[in-house]
Amino acid sequence: MLESRKDNYYGFDVTMYRISDHLWISNVMPNEQHLVNQFNYNKMMWRQETYTTDEIEFLFNVSSKVLK
Fold first, then answer.
1. pTM of the full predicted structure?
2. What is the pLDDT of residues 32-57, one digit of tens each?
3. 65 within domain boundaries
């Protein structure tokens, strides 16, 4: 079972799932994208961006089955 938490992102209620210590990915939002919180170790800060499912699979090597 993945650790999860609820967030509000510009009016979208999303559930964020902890993939690893430095990576949280949301369920798919109505705009067909996922919210991603990623810790940048070079800048020592959290980055928040949105990605499509295909981009997440490619960039973070996370299966789309985990994101459902």
1. 0.87
2. 999 999 999 999 999 999 999 999 99
3. no
